[in-house]
Backbone:
């Protein structure tokens, strides 16, 4: 069904139908009403793409995230969609999976569709041609920020969050604090590692490189990394995680090892999904202000979209929102893991000696 079909049905010109649909002041109200009724009766749907090409102003806003399953990004999509709808825009969601080529194709598709603005979590390997495409559109970087992009960014203060979490463990008496985090090619990974390191420096505690494992924000990586840390000759007495996905993998590794928190090992996660509070005895964590971050990113983009300037000015302003430290039941003073492992080694030695016919040591 097209405008011409509507015009033939009503016996008027297609230009009159077009003016009626755009509520042109020189079209009389009776004609407008007849056209609206015909549109509803015949099921006509306006071609938004064609309309945006004519006006060069569409209503589309793009949101490109690394993944959708992550609670942080899932809530972000919901909040941004609501803000867009409230301001007369429509949100289109895409997941880059941190693939720079996929990211480029998604940005290109949004530009071809005349997207008015984009909220983007940039991939670490963002391509130069992607950065060039983004120069001509209102943009906000979300959760991360990339040096190639001259656009405001919104993220959680991960450095401060990990600093406070590490200080908490140091104050409890821990000196063997392991950290499993993201690679430092991501701004978030670099910031969170910096907080962990800074806490040790301030306390004058030696930083042992053997206690750090950096990799993808993936549960399988964390599971293997934590398993490796637990098998050190001098294992950690506490464990810090740099993302929600890494926390999930760490918990699986501790379950595999038959360890309990905080009896055997203190743990501080990252993020605060609802199940953290339900996990007995409740997971101590660095909480991310999901609502505040998504609202701040939406507001930053809407300010650009409603600017009177044809091309809104953009700076590199970075909005860093404080993390929260949520104290629950997975942290306690150290000593038990080491004592338990020492007792286990002693038990194993005595068993081997008894099996060989020699008397066990008293």
Residues:
């Amino acid at each position: 069904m097209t405008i011409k079909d509507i015009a033939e049905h009503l016996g008027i010109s297609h230009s009159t139908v077009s003016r009626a649909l755009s509520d042109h002041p020189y079209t009389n109200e009776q004609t407008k009403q007849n056209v609206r009724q015909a549109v509803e009766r015949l099921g006509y749907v306006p071609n938004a793409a064609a309309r945006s090409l004519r006006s060069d102003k569409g209503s589309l806003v793009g949101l490109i995230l690394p993944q959708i399953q992550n609670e942080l990004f899932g809530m972000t999509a919901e909040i941004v969609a609501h803000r867009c709808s409230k301001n007369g825009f429509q949100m289109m969601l895409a997941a880059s999976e941190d693939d720079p080529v996929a990211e480029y194709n998604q940005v290109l598709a949004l530009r071809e569709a005349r997207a008015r603005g984009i909220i983007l979590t940039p991939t670490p390997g963002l391509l130069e041609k992607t950065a060039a495409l983004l120069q001509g559109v209102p943009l906000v970087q979300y959760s991360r920020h990339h040096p190639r992009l001259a656009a405001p960014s919104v993220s959680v203060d991960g450095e401060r969050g990990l600093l406070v979490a590490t200080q908490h463990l140091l104050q409890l008496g821990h000196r063997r604090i392991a950290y499993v985090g993201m690679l430092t090619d991501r701004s978030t990974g670099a910031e969170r590692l910096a907080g962990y390191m800074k806490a040790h420096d301030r306390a004058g505690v030696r930083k042992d490189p053997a206690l750090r494992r950096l990799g993808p924000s993936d549960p399988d990586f964390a599971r293997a990394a934590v398993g490796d840390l637990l098998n050190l000759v001098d294992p950690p007495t506490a464990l810090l995680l740099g993302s929600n996905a890494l926390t999930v993998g760490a918990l699986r590794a501790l379950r595999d090892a038959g360890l309990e928190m905080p009896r055997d090992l203190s743990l501080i996660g990252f993020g605060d999904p609802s199940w953290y509070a339900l996990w007995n005895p409740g997971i101590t964590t660095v909480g991310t202000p999901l609502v505040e971050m998504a609202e701040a990113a939406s507001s930053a983009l809407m300010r650009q979209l409603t600017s009177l300037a044809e091309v809104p000015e953009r700076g590199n302003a970075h909005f860093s929102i404080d993390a929260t430290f949520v104290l629950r039941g997975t942290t306690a003073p150290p000593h038990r893991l080491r004592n338990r492992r020492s007792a286990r080694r002693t038990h194993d030695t005595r068993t081997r000696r008894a099996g060989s016919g020699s008397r066990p040591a008293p």
User: Anything to note?
Assistant: The chain has three domains: 3-46, 56-156+291-321, 168-288+324-344. Residues 336-355 form the longest helix (20 residues). Residues 168-288+324-344 form a domain with the Rossmann fold fold (CATH 3.40.50.2300).
